[in-house]
Amino acid sequence: MTAPFPTPKTDASQRLLGPEELEAALRDIGARRYHNLHPFHRLLHDGKLNKDQVRAWALNRYYYQAMIPVKDAAVLARMEDASLRRVWRQRIVDHDGDAPGDGGIERWLKLAEGVGFRRDYVESTQGILSATRFSVDAYVHFVKERSLLEAIASSLTEMFSPTIISERVAGMLKNYDFITKDTLAYFDKRLTQAPRDAEFAIDYVKQHATTPELQRQAMAALTFKCTVLWTQLDALYFSYVAPGMTPPDAWVPGTGLVAEVAQAAGTGTVRSSDVPRLPRGVRLRHDEVRGQHVLLAPERTFDLDANAVAVLSLVDGQRSVRDIAVKLAETFVADPDVIEADVLVMLNDLATKRVLER
Amino acid sequence: MNAITPNTPSLPAPVGLLAELTHRCPLRCPYCSNPLELDRRSGELDTATWQRVLTEAAGLGVLHVHLSGGEPTARNDIVEITQTCARLGLYSNLITSGVGGALAKLDALYDAGLDHVQLSVQGVDAANAEKIGGLKNAQPQKLAFAERVTQLGLPLTLNSVIHRGNIHEVEGFIDLAVKLGAKRLEVAHTQYYGWAYVNRAALMPDKAQVDQSIRIVEAARERLKGQLVIDLVVPDYYAKYPKACAGGWGRKLMNVTPAGKVLPCHAAETIKHLEFWYVSDHSLADIWANSPAFTAYRGTDWMKEPCRSCDRREKDWGGCRCQALALAGDAAATDPACSLSPLHAKVRELAEEEAAETPPDYVYRTIGSNVDRVAPPPLKEDAPL
């Protein structure tokens, strides 16, 4: 950034900045406060986050995406000039799409699904951090309550977003094997949409911030917006990186995921129709000395409870998981679907540890 | 303690027997965990005695037998011994270098009911591996052996002992394990007992290398989930807390030497005042319950401060007694690998100093050498705390 540093002070008693000076001052705010500087984003882009931390980010950020059209509709409602509204309404179209399955929110849902979430869980927003909700809601309230100039100025973070998006896409594709180009489709569109939106907004602010006081308000509005983005990452860092204090009701890893993902044990996923078997070097044995069954495996011993013994006694390289569940359901007079779900969890765990094959 | 029998609930039965069938080995690794004074072939137990020991072990509650050495396939009766394990229901684990006569005996071992093979690999680059192991042409033999193991459908674990001479190859060990079809890989940083203690300055990596190796393993675990299980043993000298040596002294493991001496862990003979019993004089059950070497540091009664009142005393059991003796000069002291030991800072400092210096030449493992005198002396506290 070539912006002057520090930001010129422009309170009511000071001189009016020229349009280019104002733009430079606004850009300087981003250079120092935009969330690409946040440690969480550095970790994200450098591939230092684990899969669950990336999931937490995608889940929380969905609420921000989902509320953007609400925010823009509030701004739109305050515009008395049809030519302004015609420009601004494009933002709502971009985000909501013209039809189901289209638009920015949909693309964000694809991203969330791409990292393993169930769509309905993401849409419910029940697992997001309170700090995410408070920050995003504060943004919506801000554009309703402040002047139109301030509302528009607060959107100017888009001036900085193309940089962060290209860093993010390149970094995430390079560093996470579970992220694909399709997953990140959201950002492709934003690369062209954001500069167009920002160009309109910066022109509007330069034209309408005609006094030192109005210029100060515009800068304060942009600073506020940077804070809205920053606090969301603070909360993610605090809950999911360090010290790892997750508040009650917030998402915990392993929940909200598509069933296959939740059960998946990497490449060794066992499914209902698979025929599991214990390979050479893994043996079910009764240990007379301790009076229990054990599973003997390379360099380790698994102590087994009665349920595990019941399942493993039926693992014979002939029966499928479904056959095993049906047989157990007969013995225990229970719902085979419920039994099968438990059996799959157990067998997948053993497959991940490389002591069960199919 | 003498009143305790294996049936006493407070004394759990051993789960593992490390059977050091012979100290003979074609390799000469400078970090070998065998004692500096190696048993000679003439003193080795005969087949019938090993079979009796295995029978006693099964009766006592042992589940896993680790057929080790030296190189266990150097014994002519290795197939018979493996058959005995299978007959007794004992899980047999062959811990081998894969060189010499190992490949020639592998099919017979498979037929005898061998359960698992753990193959040592000294390096990924053949020249480096053969320098460390001290044996020319070892690497191609190992690779051919590994190939036959997986062809037979036996589960294969690769064991790589990590030190400054191969720590740059950690990623390579992971790739090699995948390529060879291993299900498990042990990335085991060197533990500084026995020959490794003598060679410590030649083996000690620096902290940055250690951290990097841990990061590589963690990333690979995620990437290869369900394909390769990686066990990581982190190096003591850079650790915060010590390891529960052998799962706690006299709690899980018995180690029988080639000559039939029974140890609570493979390095225990370095503690000179302990009285070890032999399988020729006592049953395994009697030794487990009553041998002075086993009762000496079992449980927590023997502990001094800071172990005695520590919350972790039944987690790590005070760490390693042999390391306490080697570094603190007292086998009942807190293992200096523990951050609560007054010597911990010195240990860390020592490791960093040794890692920063040009490594000396290896002192290779040999039978009948007299290297005791070159072992580093214990550390001293600067001032009492």
Summarize the structure.
The complex is a heterodimer of chains A (358) and B (385). Chain A has 358 residues and is mainly alpha-helical. Helices cover 60% and strands 4% of the residues of chain A.
Which pair has the most extensive contact? A-B, 26 and 28 residues
Low-confidence stretches of chain A: 1-6, 263-267
Distance between the termini of chain A: 57 Å
Number of helices of chain A: 15
- Summing up helix and strand content along with how strands pair, one would put the structural category of chain B as alpha/beta
**If helices are DSSP runs of H or I spanning 4 or more residues, what is the number of helices of chain B?**
13
**Order of strands side by side in the largest beta sheet of chain A?**
1-2-3
Placed side by side, the strands forming the largest sheet of chain B appear as: 7-6-5-4-3-2-1-8-9
Q: Main beta sheet of chain A, described? A: 3 strands, antiparallel
Binned strand content of chain B: 5-15%
Mean pLDDT of chain B: 90
- Strands of chain B, count: 9
Q: In which range does the helix fraction of chain B lie?
A: 25-40%
Mean pLDDT of chain A: 88
SSE run of chain A: HHHHHHHHHHHHEEEHHH
How would you characterize this protein structure?
The complex is a heterodimer of chains A (358) and B (385). In chain A, 60% of the residues lie in helices and 4% in strands. Chain A has 15 helices and three strands. Chain A has helices at 19-33, 39-45, 51-76, 82-96, 104-114, 119-124, 130-145, 148-153, 161-175, 185-208, 212-241, 259-263, 306-314, 321-332, 336-352, and strands spanning 283-287, 292-297, 300-303. Chain B has 385 residues and is an alpha/beta fold. The A-B interface holds A 50-51, 177, 265-269, 279-283, 285, 287, 289-290, 294, 296, 298-299, 301, 351-354 and B 13, 15, 59-61, 63-64, 89, 91, 93, 115-116, 118, 153-155, 157, 183-184, 222-229, 231.
